[in-house]
Amino acid sequence: MGYDEVVLGRRSIRGFTPDPVPRELIEEILELAMRAPSSMNTQPWNFHVITGEPLDRIRAGNTERNLAGVPHSREFRTGAEKFTGTHRERQVQVAKQLFGAMGIARDNTEKRHDWVLRGFRQFDAPVCVIVTYDRILDGSDDTPFDCGAVSTALVNAAWSRGLGAVINSQGIMQSPVVREHAGIPDDQVIMKSIALGWPDDTFPANAVVSERKSVSEAATFVGFEP
């Protein structure tokens, strides 16, 4: 798979095969991802790569706490969680695309709830990468940007090696569970999780390509000739 296919595919994989991913391949992907730029070369990121029984314990703990109504406890906070206006419309649109692909009707509360729980189960992927940053950098303006850059690079590197990935926040919303079973030390802050594995070509939602606004909507050009 070439670079253009990686970048322009624009797909998040939400259905994975149960096949294991070799550690050596993940190390190769991480090595590629860590060529991402960071502010003044601070490289604030850390990766906790989890599979097998520890990952199953995280899935179970996330699910149990959510079904019990335990409040979410994300460690990295950016302010308001609810989108409004155009941003909310885009959120709703991609949900419609996904539910349509999966054949989940609007009034099917049970299936919709199970879809949400998939995120807390790391989308049933065989591997989960928890992205953290060094707590000493908490409050830095650049650190979240740097971690976002390396996460995007990781996803593109995974695609280039035939793997699928989805960056998500649901998998870390019960941070005490993640911290315990992933063995994350106190001097690190949990930021994001990335579900990783071999794409399941039979999973309908994997064919969904989210719509994108045009360059003319996103970009303002100044000083160019008409």
Automatic annotation (TrEMBL):
SUPFAM superfamilies named in the record: FMN-dependent nitroreductase-like
UniProt entry keywords in alphabetical sequence: Oxidoreductase
TM segment ranges: none
Domain Nitroreductase: 8-198
Statement: the UniProt record of this protein carries the keyword Membrane: no
Pfam families the UniProt entry points to: Nitroreductase (PF00881)
InterPro entries according to UniProt: Nitroreductase (IPR029479), Nitroreductase-like (IPR000415)
Highest taxon in the source lineage: Bacteria
Keyword Transit peptide appears in the UniProt entry: no
Family: Belongs to the nitroreductase family.
Protein name: Nitroreductase
Organism: Gordonia tangerina
